[in-house]
UniProtKB/TrEMBL annotation:
PROSITE patterns: CRAL_TRIO, GOLD, PRELI_MSF1
Lineage: Eukaryota, Metazoa, Chordata, Craniata, Vertebrata
Positions of the PRELI/MSF1 domain: 3-175
Domain GOLD: 499-652
Protein name per the record: SEC14-like protein 1
Gene3D superfamilies reported for this sequence: CRAL-TRIO lipid binding domain, GOLD domain
Domain of life: Eukaryota
Example GO biological process: negative regulation of RIG-I signaling pathway
Pfam families named among the record's database cross-references: CRAL_TRIO, CRAL_TRIO_N, PRELI
InterPro entries, alphabetized: CRAL-TRIO_dom (IPR001251), CRAL-TRIO_dom_sf (IPR036865), CRAL/TRIO_N_dom (IPR011074), CRAL/TRIO_N_dom_sf (IPR036273), GOLD_dom (IPR009038), GOLD_dom_sf (IPR036598), PRELI/MSF1_dom (IPR006797), SEC14/CRAL-TRIO_domain (IPR051064)
CDD domains, sorted: SEC14
GO molecular function annotation: RIG-I binding
Domain CRAL-TRIO: 297-473
Cellular compartments per GO CC: cytosol
Length: 678
């Protein structure tokens, strides 16, 4: 397995030339890098005007590995080749390195770049990427990988400290400025050559992008707004963020949100990406991003839902108080239904995310989760009403899937004897990492040492818990039965709540694409689309026909003769039609991979009937040779392996309306970028 690393942008608040002067002092050896024992220049060349210097060096590393492993490998040092290009005119230094030793068994590649900060020419940026691929190593592949990752992570963390050390040394010597390079016709001072050796870090190199992204995800920003992350955790965040930017066309969640999903899966990128994509699809389908603006709590919730926000805890986390023992769960379910309760809980979580952002700015440190205080006084068997417990379990399931790592601490107070019964029911649905954050107090134990005052300032402890602070959380009580709704009314409203979405979903099978028909009257109209590939890989096509297709039909699944198990798979193009005669392709086919979010438009040239088609594609088979593999042949016998799913929305706009939409999107994009940089 190939291990990859990508650094954040590390910023030195010093000019490029001064950073290069500090960089020179690291060589030929550096006492701050004990493993870097030697370096020899293999070749060096400078351009005629002196602006570009290229140096190739051979560097020796004394890797901190077990003596037995070194004896088995038969080496004392690991040798690297480095090729460095200093462009004084462009003010950049590019460094590439790869291993010579065991290059047939282990492939290490690293790319680094020093460049001028895009927003401040007196600052310098540094980026690096690296990759490690261990093909074989005398049966010690796992050990070598762990050694390499450990030493590389340590060298990354120390890299900036070394440059800062030599910058301080220059300052102590009175050197605080270095002149910029000028063409020989503009200066009489000779250009001082710069040593270009760098210490190859024990493990790596990934291709690093020399172009600094905007806005910059730099190390200082990460520490200020996201917290202390290890180099490899930073790398996971940056790589996942970059993948989202490439596949979701700029519609990506905030860095704090991405980081929560990574933490929920212990920074396993593949697992985090899977659950994050599922959550983004869910948010998009149900318009969760607009919930705070569109959702108004019914009066019943305002009067009888015994929960609300109350200041913050000692760590600056927003504090949510829930008096569960005073809540009439049966009455809420009977008066509102599961969906209204779920939507209300989602609005609480969305408000929690907003408050975390606010508190991060107020307290000057990263705050990514909140504290919840649950008072169980009054909890009894009435709260174990089966439909109420069922609604609670469903709410927990949705929240766990879409708001991971948002609960920093859960304080459960005055737990009665019936609590173990409730805990037995709900605990299997709660993530293990979340359960570790639970603190449970029986009776008045919360008032003693190690109790509530350890987590909440005495001044804001609610009055009903013996404090002096007035709490605006409703006291609850029994909901009058006159407010109960019939099961038919609740079912109808529940369906309406979660079908209020502009998006539609469809399953796609091999031999059974999904097609939708759009009739165009005005030839200058614009067809727009927005779809997510939720499962599998698809090809998106747009066709035009002068005649209307036959009524929509559900086609059997190709040669399998199996009827589609879902009712939302429709074919419009008749099998007797010939491409180029009965209908024509108006856009090049677009291949879309699982997890991608695609937006686009097509300006129609002719009136008539346009067909948008999503078709199954096997990416692995496309990349292979023309000869089918045994696995591919066997896979064709399994219908389930040829299923894709898309969620889509289409709209037809007039050309004038389309221009207005484009202008609005550009304005919103500028505002988003400005907000991020602030």
């Amino acid at each position: 397995m190939v291990q990859k690393y990508q650094s954040p942008v590390r910023v030195y608040k010093h000019p490029f030339e001064l950073v290069m002067a500090a960089y020179e002092r690291r060589f030929p050896t550096c006492h701050l890098i004990p493993i870097f024992v030697a370096s020899d220049v293999v070749s060096e060349e400078t351009s005629e005007d002196g602006s570009i210097t290229k140096v190739e060096r051979r560097c020796a590393l004394d890797v901190d590995a077990p003596r037995l492993l070194k004896r088995i490998a038969g080496v004392d040092y690991v040798y690297f080749t480095q090729r460095n290009t200093l462009n004084r005119k462009e003010r950049t230094l590019h460094i590439e390195s790869h291993n010579e030793t065991f290059s047939n068994r282990v492939i290490i590649h690293e790319t680094c770049c020093y460049s001028v900060h895009p927003e401040n020419e007196d600052w310098t940026c540094f980026e690096q990427t690296a990759s490690l691929d261990i093909k074989s190593f005398f049966g010690f592949e796992s050990t070598v990988e762990k050694i390499a990752m450990k030493q590389y992570a340590g060298s990354i963390k120390k890299g900036k400290e070394i440059i800062e050390y030599y910058l301080k040394e220059l300052e102590d010597e009175g050197i605080t400025h270095m002149p910029r390079w000028l063409p020989s016709s503009q200066t009489t001072a000779p250009v001082r050559p710069t040593s270009l050796c760098t210490s190859p870090c024990v493990f790596l190199a990934l291709p690093v992008s020399p172009v600094v992204p905007t806005p910059i995800l730099d190390a200082d920003y990460i520490k200020r707004y996201l917290g202390d992350l290890t180099p490899l955790q930073e790398s996971c965040l940056i790589r996942l963020r970059k993948w989202l930017q490439e596949t979701h066309k700029g519609k990506i969640p905030k860095d704090e949100h991405i980081l929560r999903f990574l933490r929920a899966r212990d920074f396993n990128m593949d697992k985090a990406r899977e659950i994050l994509c599922q959550s983004l699809t869910w948010r998009k389908q149900h318009q969760v991003d607009y919930l705070l603006e569109t959702w108004t709590s019914p009066q019943v919730l305002q009067d009888f839902y015994t929960g609300g926000w109350h200041h913050h805890d000692r760590d600056g986390r927003p504090l949510y108080i829930l008096r569960l023992g005073h809540m009439d769960t049966k009455g809420l379910v009977r008066a509102l239904g599961e969906e209204s309760l779920l939507r209300h809980v989602l609005s609480i979580n969305e408000e929690g995310l907003r408050r975390c952002e606010e508190n991060t700015k107020v307290f000057g440190r990263p705050i990514s989760c909140w504290t919840c205080l649950v008072d169980l006084e009054g909890l009894n068997m009435r709260h174990l009403w089966r439909p109420g417990v069922k609604a609670l379990l469903r709410i927990i399931e949705v929240v766990e899937a879409n708001y991971p790592e948002t609960l920093g601490r859960l304080l459960i107070l005055r737990a009665p004897r019936v609590f173990p019964v409730l805990w037995t029911l709900v605990s299997p649905f709660i993530d293990e990492n979340t359960r570790k954050k639970f603190l449970i107090y029986a009776g008045n134990d919360y008032q003693g040492p190690g109790g509530l005052v350890d987590y909440i300032d005495k001044e804001i402890i609610p009055d009903f818990l013996g404090g002096e602070c007035m709490c605006e959380v409703p006291e609850g009580g029994l909901i009058p039965k006159s407010m109960y709704r019939t099961p038919e009314e609740l079912e109808s409203e529940d369906v309406r709540l979660w079908t209020e979405t502009i998006y539609q979903s469809s399953s796609i099978f091999k031999g059974a694409p999904h097609e939708i028909l759009i009739e165009i009257i005005d030839a200058s109209s614009v067809i727009t689309w927005d779809f997510d590939v939720c499962k599998g890989d698809v090809v998106f096509n747009i066709y035009h026909s002068k005649r209307a297709p036959q009524p929509a039909r559900k086609d059997p699944l190709g040669a399998h003769g199996i009827t589609s198990p879902v009712g939302n798979n429709v074919q419009l193009i008749d099998k007797s039609w010939t491409l180029g005669q009965d209908y024509s392709m108006v856009e090049s086919p677009l291949t879309c991979k699982e997890g991608e979010s695609v937006q686009g438009s097509h300006i129609t040239r002719w009136p008539g009937f346009y067909i948008l088609q999503w078709k199954f594609v096997n990416m692995a088979a496309c990349a292979a040779t023309n000869m089918p593999r045994v696995d591919d042949v066997l896979a064709t016998l399994q219908v389930s392996s040829h299923k894709c799913k898309v969620m889509y929305y289409t709209e037809v706009l007039g050309s004038a309306d389309f221009r207005c939409v484009l202008l609005l999107r550009r304005t919103n994009h500028c505002l988003i970028v400005a907000d991020h940089t602030e």
